[in-house]
Design a protein that fits this description.
The protein has nine helices and eleven strands. It is of the alpha+beta class. The strands form two sheets. Strands 1-2-3-6-4-5 form a six-stranded mixed β-sheet. The protein has a five-stranded antiparallel β-sheet with strand order 8-10-7-11-9, with no helix packed on it. It starts with 14 loop residues before the first helix and ends with a strand.
């Protein structure tokens, strides 16, 4: 245990600095967008209007320094699952059906067994999502990556019909927030986690859960994938201007792995909630009448 409380920024990941950098380049990105772009930077996935109707939904993401834990424990298949499900969840917030995924695997020196395990995980999760693993790029870059290290990124494209695109303007004060449990840390907060543990417990590698099935059956208005920034950093992206939310932290029990991280690292409550999913991997905004009996309601939408 450290003598002072740890933070994500002190561990090397400054989310506030990232947001400032993004604001600086946002005009450059916007300048490339024609009338076909219905949603660019900001939501969980971009939307590109097709001439024939409907939209392509696209997103790109990585697995972060969870890879360092996988390397330390010699377990790599779950990293492929992590990547696919993270990307699938992002475009699922637009009600998109996944079409295909491209991966980028970079390393200092290609280790065939590790690469094979990662790709096996990619294929397994793509098959479960009904998504083709279309191909990608494998790059060996000695000198840029240390021997034994690797990185992984994914680029996913899905299809959504125009009437199905979520409309944040439909959200009203009084709507309820339905929480879908996470399977653990998913793929965020590992730079802080690696400062906390001297020996990594295996549950840190529990794969990122897919919510594609639930998002396809529940009647929701908007959805927030709880990734980097936790609920405070992601839920506002599912709400229109002028509305906020009230979270009921007593509605669910924080899984033990998060409590252990907080105790070992002396991490504040605010830092934990703003870094980790804390047991909630997806939040759905729903009309009260649409919430199924027994569902986990973790808060409500309020006037901002």
């Amino acid at each position: 245990m450290t003598s002072e409380g740890l933070s994500y920024a002190a561990a090397g990941v400054d989310i506030a600095a990232y947001e400032r950098a993004l604001e600086r380049v946002r005009p450059l990105l916007a300048a490339t967008a024609g009338p076909e772009v219905a949603a660019g930077v900001g939501p969980f996935a971009g939307l590109y209007r097709l001439p024939s109707g409907g939209y392509l939904a696209a997103s790109a993401d990585g697995v972060g320094t969870k890879i360092k834990v996988a390397i330390a424990l010699g377990r790599h298949r779950g990293i492929g699952v992590d990547l696919v499900n993270h990307c699938v969840n992002d475009i699922a917030t637009t009600r998109a059906r996944p079409l295909f995924l491209l991966d980028y695997f970079a390393t200092g020196s290609l280790q065939e067994e590790v690469f094979g395990e990662v790709v096996a995980g990619l294929a397994e999760a793509c098959q479960a999502a009904g998504c083709a693993l279309l191909g990608g790029e494998t790059a060996e870059m000695p000198g840029l990556y240390a021997l034994g290290d690797y990185d992984l990124a994914g680029f996913i494209v899905g299809l959504v019909a125009e009437p199905d695109v979520p409309d944040p303007a439909s959200v009203r004060a009084g709507d309820l927030l339905l929480g879908l449990p996470s399977s653990g840390l998913h793929t965020n907060g590992f730079s802080l986690v690696r400062k906390v543990f001297k020996e990594f417990p295996p549950e840190l590698l529990e794969p990122h859960r897919s919510y594609l099935g639930e998002l396809g059956t529940l009647r929701w208005k908007t959805a927030a994938h709880v990734t980097g920034g936790g609920i405070p950093g992601n839920l506002p992206r599912a709400l229109p201007p002028g509305l906020g939310y009230r979270l009921d932290r007593s509605a669910w029990q924080t899984p033990q792995i998060f409590r252990e991280i907080q105790e070992r690292g002396r991490v504040s409550d605010e830092e934990m909630l703003g870094t980790f999913n804390m047991g909630i991997g997806m939040v759905l905004v729903m009309e009260p009448a649409a919430v199924p009996p027994g569902a986990l309601v973790i808060g409500e939408v309020v006037a901002g």
